[in-house]
Fold this sequence. Notes:
Elements: H1 2-5, E1 22-25, E2 37-39, E3 42-43, H2 46-66, H3 79-93, E4 98-101, E5 121-123, H4 131-134, H5 138-145, E6 155-157, H6 162-173
Parallel strand pairs: 1-4, 5-6
Antiparallel strand pairs: 1-2, 2-3
Helix pairs in contact: 5-6
Amino acid sequence: MSSILTQYIPSPSQPNPLxxxxxxxxxxxxxxxxxxxRINNEPLSEELFAKYFWEVWDKLEESARAKGEPTDKxxxxxxxxxxxxxxxxxxxxxxxxxxxxxxxxxxxxxxTNVIQQPSVSGITSLGIDHVQLxxxxxxxxxxxxxxxxxxxxxxxxxxxxxxxQDVLERRAVE
Length: 174
């Protein structure tokens, strides 16, 4: 994905790009957590990561305090949810023009699903994974993954196993 995006950002060969800043949020990271949140194909610097981490953390504590709720770690979102909120916060603060947001485990109940009207949704090849959360069959997994599809938003997928494809097509009509 990153290599495709680089053709749309400022460069000597692209002096008048369509976008000045493109965000990419992926999971999991391979070497360090900062690579999950990228702008123009570059991971956040340590300084920006720390800055936006603490801005989100402090805002969550402030919000909990205002509601009279605890501010300890039990009041914070899970690791992936926190990073998702932090990515959205980062892209807003950095004036990102467009962002590609990868779901975590699923689609239907994934924290990235707060985006109500994406420009497009895509589903990569499905397999039997995350069965403890998504189900034991390709049909159950396809149902969850199809949860990222939104009304009036184009959705694309690669060729799937017939059983998975059937589920995706049914959910697309819902």
